[in-house]
């Protein structure tokens, strides 16, 4: 069945299409009686406004693009929920694309979103992204962009972040306070800013508390996966069997490491204390439960959309817009893996 049109409603009631349109929009120059007749018939015929036509008139698509490294990921799924919770309130559709940590794929997805004429783009950049021309090109076309979590400091746009360096410092200091003297770090790839900042927070905590920084205790991971957690935990035991603490870049890796240590008979936290990062659900159910930095994914998503929405509205009104960087607070959640 073809969609019902304004013209069909108008012909049925013997009034103009303009009057029908005004009645549905509650214009004051249409009588209450006419409004009632129009709305009742529209409901009976299951009339739905033509979103495409409305968008053409308003120069809005009422869609936004979201590019994230992974869809099936506790943190990013929380971000997505936060974004959608706000987008639905404002009548926006969210197109979600996964870069799979690939720079080339991320570029293609940005081009795709621009071809779909989205009103704005939210993005957490891929680990492989070192060139930001594709994002700067979007901004140069006056299309709002908001970065979150994995951001590029040199891109001039609004951002939603946490203080990764401070959070990592707190995590490492916690291990020091628990008596750890030789602390390793499983870090992320070299490029993402949050991976860099977490490494620097770890290093600063050691140096400020009289522990010598040893680069051989820092292991660079690429996939940030459970399997890498297992692999590098076993490698750490071979390389440095006297390590008594580890700060790990993300919880999934930490859970892999705990699994490996459990199988090797390494007692946690008695032999090795561990702190992760993100506060996944699995962190609270693994044995022993994992101490971790609580990263506010849901709130990050909500905040990112609100910034994007505000910029979309300001640009539509041709009003100046000032980019903002919003820093959200984090907390250390202490559980069994570090509570000596």
List keywords for this structure.
340 residues; 12 strands; single chain; 3 domains; alpha/beta; 16% strand; Rossmann fold
Explain what the structure shows.
- The chain is an alpha/beta fold and 340 residues long.
- It folds into 3 domains: 6-49, no CATH class; 62-161 and 297-329, Rossmann fold, CATH 3.40.50; 164-295, Response regulator (Rossmann fold, 3-Layer(aba) Sandwich), CATH 3.40.50.
- The chain has 12 helices and 12 strands.
- The protein has helices spanning 6-13, 17-24, 32-44, 51-58, 74-89, 103-115, 133-140, 164-177, 193-208, 226-239, 251-264, 297-316; strands at 63-68, 93-98, 121-123, 145-148, 158-162, 183-187, 218-220, 245-248, 273-278, 291-294, 325-328, 331-333.
- α8 (164-177) packs parallel to α9 and α10 (226-239) packs across α11 (251-264).
- The longest helix is centred in the C-terminal third of the chain and has 20 residues, at 297-316.
- It starts with 5 loop residues before the first helix and ends in a 7-residue tail after the last strand.
Indicate the proportion of strand residues: 15-25%
The quaternary structure here is single chain
Distance between the termini: 68 Å
Question: If you average the pLDDT, what whole number results?
Answer: 93
Instruction: Fill in the CATH topology of the largest domain.
Output: Rossmann fold
Sum up the overall morphology in one term.
Answer: elongated
CATH architecture of the largest domain, please? 3-Layer(aba) Sandwich
The string of secondary-structure elements, in order, is HHHHEHEHEHEEHEHEHEHEEHEE
Instruction: Enumerate how many helices there are, as a single number.
Output: 12
Main sheet characteristics: 6 strands, parallel
CATH homologous superfamily of the largest domain? Response regulator
Tally of distinct domains: 3
Count of DSSP E strands? Answer: 12
């Amino acid at each position: 069945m073809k969609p019902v049109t304004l013209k069909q409603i108008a012909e049925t009631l013997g009034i103009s299409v303009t009057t029908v349109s005004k009645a549905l929009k509650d214009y004051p120059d249409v009588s209450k009686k006419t409004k009632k007749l129009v709305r009742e018939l529209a409901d009976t015929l299951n009339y739905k406004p033509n979103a495409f036509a409305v968008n053409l008139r308003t120069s809005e698509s009422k869609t936004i693009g979201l590019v994230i490294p992974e869809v099936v990921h506790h943190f990013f799924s929380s971000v997505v929920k936060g974004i959608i919770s706000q987008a639905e309130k404002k009548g926006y559709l969210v197109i979600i694309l996964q870069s799979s940590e690939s720079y080339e794929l991320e570029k293609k997805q940005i081009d795709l979103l621009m071809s779909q004429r989205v009103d704005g783009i939210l993005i957490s950049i891929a680990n492989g992204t070192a060139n930001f021309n594709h994002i700067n090109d979007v901004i140069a076309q006056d299309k709002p962009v908001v970065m979150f979590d994995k951001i590029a400091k040199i891109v001039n746009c609004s951002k939603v972040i946490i203080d990764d360096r401070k959070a990592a410092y707190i995590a490492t200091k916690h291990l020091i306070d628990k008596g750890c003297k030789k602390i390793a770090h499983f870090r992320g790839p070299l490029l993402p800013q949050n991976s860099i900042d977490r490494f620097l927070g770890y290093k600063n905590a050691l140096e400020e508390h009289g522990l010598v920084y040893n680069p051989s205790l820092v292991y660079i991971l690429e996939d940030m996966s459970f399997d890498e957690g297992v692999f590098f935990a076993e490698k750490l035991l071979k390389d440095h069997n006297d390590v008594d603490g580890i700060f790990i870049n993300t919880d999934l890796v930490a859970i892999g490491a705990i699994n490996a240590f459990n199988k090797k008979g390494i007692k946690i936290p008695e032999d090795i204390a561990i702190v992760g990062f993100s506060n996944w659900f699995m962190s609270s159910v693994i044995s022993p439960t994992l101490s971790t930095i609580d990263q506010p994914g849901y709130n990050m998503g909500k905040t990112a959309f609100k910034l994007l929405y505000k910029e979309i509205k300001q640009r539509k009104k041709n009003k100046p817009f000032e980019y903002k960087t919003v820093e959200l607070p984090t907390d250390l959640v202490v559980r069994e893996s570090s509570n000596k």
